[in-house]
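[agent] plan:
  1. take the single chain provided in the ticket
  2. run structure prediction with default settings
  3. attach structure tokens to the ticket
  4. add a short note for the reviewer (M.T.)
[agent] executing step 1
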Amino acid sequence: MGGRAAEQLAGSGMSFASTYAIGHLADRYYAGGRKLGNAEMKTSFESLKNSAMDLHAKYLPEIRDKAATLTPDKVLSLVRGSQSV
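[agent] step 2 finished; step 3 output follows
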């Protein structure tokens, strides 16, 4: 079971980091008039992904604490915007 938890943790970290990096890279790309070269995009993506992995590690305890208190009703309220986390 510990291996499964570690696998899930690594997967969630990589998913978060990739999504974060893609979003921020898209912002840079469009803000710069769609003029990023391949090498610059690759370098920026790696840098953003590494920053995101640090953010994930920093906020993971807080995320776990909040996730432990979530119920389906709370999730629906959050989605509807009628409750804060």
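[agent] step 4 note for reviewer: The chain has a mean pLDDT of 86.
[agent] ticket updated
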